[in-house]
Amino acid sequence: MTPIVECIDKNGDGSITAHFGYQNSNSQEVSVAIGAHNFFAPGSEDRGQPDMFMSGRVVNVFTVKFTGGSLTWTVLSKSATASADSGLCSPETPTPTPTPNLTPNVDCNGVPNGTAKVDQCGVCGGDGKSCTAECITSSISDLLGALDSNANAQEANLKQLLKRIENNARGNATLLKFVQQTRKEVEDMKIKQWQSVWTTVPVEVKNCAGVIGCAEVDRQDVLDTLKTQSLAFVTLSKKIASKLSSTLSGNKLRADDKKLLTSARRLHDQNVAISASVPRFSSICG
């Protein structure tokens, strides 16, 4: 199955309209579902292309309008790319000229009016799993659990410091309001950290490098978010400690208070190290 760029039109708005056809060298009609083996790139994989391919050379089957760069249509193992350098259409663009087909529609197994289709692995009637045998799956639940546990500890440290301010407030409305608002802020930070750990990172990471039908996902932005959220606990701990020192004689923190600040930094350093152990790349198949 060979996709073909017939020609292009250069539009007045700077966009390009590409005309596509194809060559089906099989003696019968072939079905290739839109997806992993019948798609456009970049952008939307479905641009109105057919999923049933008549036998022979079929001209000017459909058009696609796009802007900038190039646009590639891939069917099975072959591709056709349209760009500004493609040949221009003549004033009268060829109209569709399908090869007459007197045989009934057949599926990829050659069965008349059959329903079998080529799966993501290129197997006719397959279940899409034959090309995932090389995937390696590993669990990172222990790493995610450690991040969650450290977030709990960070929350507890900050609440201890806030409790100290509350005990020293002696009815001071400004200090009590600070404690109340900051305690809510700490709890919200913990919830966001929990959501980042357990809802944006998969517990099981699949690596299917080179496997047909699988795409690689980069989660660097998620890992950066985890580290940023952890650092936020350290920043807030300094703010709370500063407020606490203003309630103490000589504005000096106790040794126990300083230990809580040190613990906040230590927990953050641990989180950075743990995040570095979480795989940045994983695979999605299907």
What amount of the residues lies in strands?
15-25%
- At CATH level 3, the topology of the largest domain is Butyryl-CoA Dehydrogenase, subunit A, domain 3
Task: Pick out the low-confidence regions.
Answer: none
Which word captures the global form?
elongated
CA radius of gyration is 30 Å
Largest sheet: 3 strands, antiparallel
Multimerization state: single chain
Strand order of the largest sheet: 1-2-6
CATH architecture of the largest domain: Up-down Bundle
Number of strands: 12
Under the CATH scheme, which class of the largest domain?
Mainly Alpha
- Secondary-structure-based class equals alpha+beta
Mean pLDDT: 87
How many helices? The count is 4
Describe the 3D structure:
- The protein is of the alpha+beta class and 286 residues long.
- It folds into two domains: 1-124, no CATH class; 136-285, Butyryl-CoA Dehydrogenase, subunit A, domain 3.
- Helices cover 36% and strands 23% of the residues.
- The strands form five sheets. A three-stranded antiparallel beta sheet has the order 1-2-6, with no helix packed on it.
- A hairpin with a 2-residue loop joins strand 7 and strand 8.
- The mean pLDDT is 87.
Q: Top keywords for this entry?
A:
286 residues, alpha+beta, three-stranded antiparallel sheet
